[in-house]
Design brief:
Elements lengths: L6 H9 L5 H14 L6 E4 L1 H16 L11 E5 L26 H8 L3 E6 L33 H8 L5 E6 L5 H7 L2 E4 L19 E6 L2 H11 L18 H4 L7 E5 H4 L5 H16 L3 E5 L7 H16 L17 H12 L2 H14 L5 H24 L2 E5 L15 H5 L6 H6 L3 E8 L5 E7 L5 H18 L15
Parallel strand pairs: 2-3, 2-4, 7-8, 7-9
Antiparallel strand pairs: 1-3, 4-6, 5-6, 5-10, 9-11, 10-11
Helix pairs in contact: 2-3, 5-6, 11-13, 11-14
The structure holds glutamine.
The site of glutamine (GLN) has 14 residues, from strand 4.
Length: 492
């Protein structure tokens, strides 16, 4: 939320001629400049944003309606292609590369009157949970600059939490929208696989990747989701049915809604402060009339193992295209093969190399059945167990992250410790289901805790319905006069 308020309010004021898009964008650019030390942005497109804002103001003056995101500043994760504007994936290997086209989501945001103000920092190629794997250095968490903002969409989450942009887009392959949103105290939503076009999203693991919104309110997430979702013939995995308007679902309340707390994602390995917030969230839904119970999704315990075979396997194939010929960096050498090796050695960071090696190994003859093949079977079990859970419950609840934001360097020495950050989020990606992280008060050291609402495939409406109720319950609990991303008391 910028000082101008959430996206819904900004768009209403701009459409009604009460605020100029130019002043909104100027305010956003000023906030980005004054928070530069957070390193949330890789690129700021100030001139283009101001030019677009003037065009929107002209349209309003001419009696036209620029759309539901009129004048709303938007930050894009730097793996979403923008025509003629550097798209780096926070990697040296894409140095100097400018995409020749816009991603479909960029076209849709523009068509709705949104204004892109820049590209946000991330873990290199979206591999990581802390934004420490960026070739340009980490983003700092606005709630505590000594801590990580989460990842891999850390810059997008920080831009929201620091009131730079009311709307940011991230990508979520195993939790990269929801986990940073939780750690920064904002809302982050991963749509059903196929709901939002991946055309123009730089591929990490194509069977898991989805683009989604990071905002300060659930209503804004629903608004942005509706603007970017829907069929796209340029993405062969795109779902043909229209996504629909979510605004009706937001106020429906949760009376009679069946809410299941996932036992496997909310017990072992979850910090006490996070469990306490989950418990309080469940209680508040129950007090609003939801039927809350516990549910088992047994295969979820193997989710992380399956994810860390499937995602690297797909990444090893997707990243083969960075060969020193087609994109960005080239390190010259005597032969093409040597040039290829030298370019990839210099261009990729350690985590990306680790994933490529892991994935190549898991796919290699002799190991395919034991690793990749087995992981695919686990994926089927996750889907089956979710289907059983959704026979008894409308939505499921779990923590978003096992802990609050951790300190820089705390997990970089131990990849496994870092991977455990994704324990609660990867199951939704394996299943292709929608999930949203909603701020649910604060935990250790006053840092934000996020609670995740999950729903079956194409269940965005019921997911937003429960998420909006959860958000209202938090607001009711908040002490009068308090505000900001970490507001909410540690005790109910
Ligand atoms: N943190 C997870 C990983 O490192 C998820 C990343 C993502 O969703 N892009 O793979």
């Amino acid at each position: 939320m910028t000082a101008a308020g959430p996206a819904l309010a900004i768009a209403a004021a701009v459409r009604g001629g009460e605020r100029s898009a130019t002043s909104v964008v100027e305010e956003s650019l000023a906030a980005i400049a004054s928070g530069a030390e957070l390193a949330a942005f890789n690129t700021v497109t100030a001139e283009a944003a101001l030019a677009r804002a003037r065009r929107i103001d002209d349209a309003v003056a001419a009696g036209e309606d620029p759309g539901c995101l009129a004048g709303v500043p938007v930050a894009l994760k730097d793996n979403i292609c923008t025509r003629g504007v550097a798209t780096t994936c926070s990697s040296r290997i894409l140095e100097g590369w400018e995409p020749p086209y816009d991603a479909t989501v960029v076209g849709r945001l523009n068509a709705a009157g949104g204004i892109v103000v820049g590209k946000t920092n991330m873990d290199e190629f979206a591999m990581g949970s802390s934004t420490e794997n960026s070739a340009f250095g980490p983003t700092l968490n606005p709630c505590d600059p000594a801590r990580v903002p989460g990842g891999s969409s850390g810059g997008s989450a920080a831009a929201g939490a620091a009131a730079m942009t009311p709307v940011a887009l991230g990508s979520d392959t195993g939790g990269s929208i929801r986990q940073p949103a939780a750690l920064c105290g904002v809302v982050g939503m991963k749509p059903t696989y196929g709901r939002v076009s991946r055309y123009g999203l730089v591929a990490f693991a194509s069977s898991l990747d989805q683009i989604g919104p990071i905002t300060c309110t659930v209503a804004d997430a629903a608004l942005v989701y509706s603007a970017i979702a829907g069929h796209d013939p340029l993405d062969s995995t795109s779902i043909p049915e229209p996504a629909g308007d979510m605004s009706g679902a937001l106020g429906e309340g949760v009376a009679g809604l069946r809410v299941g707390i996932v036992a496997e994602l909310s017990g072992e390995g979850i910090d006490g402060d996070v469990s306490a917030r989950l418990g309080a969230a469940a209680e508040s839904l129950a007090s609003l009339g939801a039927e809350v119970g516990e549910v088992s999704v047994p295969a979820a315990v193997y989710g992380l193992s399956a994810y860390f075979l499937i995602a690297p396997a797909e990444a090893s194939s997707n990243l083969a295209r960075y060969d020193g010929v087609r994109y960005g960096l080239r390190v010259p050498a005597a032969t093409a093969a040597d040039m290829n090796v030298a370019t990839r050695t210099a261009g990729f960071g350690d985590e990306v190399k680790r994933r490529i090696m892991l994935g190549t190994f898991a796919l290699s003859a002799g190991y395919y059945d034991a690793y990749y093949g087995k992981a695919l079977k686990v994926r089927t079990l996750v889907l089956r167990d979710f289907a059983a859970a959704y026979e008894r419950f409308d939505v499921l609840l779990a923590p978003t992250s096992p802990t609050v934001a951790f300190r820089f360097g705390e997990r970089t020495g131990n990849p496994l410790a870092m991977y455990l950050s994704d324990a609660c989020t990867v199951a939704s990606n394996l299943a292709g289901h929608p999930a949203i992280s909603v701020p649910a008060g604060s935990g250790a050291d006053g840092l934000p805790v996020g609670v995740q609402v999950m729903a079956p495939a194409l269940g965005e409406a019921v997911m937003f319905r429960a998420a909006a109720a959860l958000e209202r319950a938090q607001a009711d609990r908040r002490p009068a006069g308090s505000g900001g991303a970490t507001a909410g008391s540690a005790s109910p």
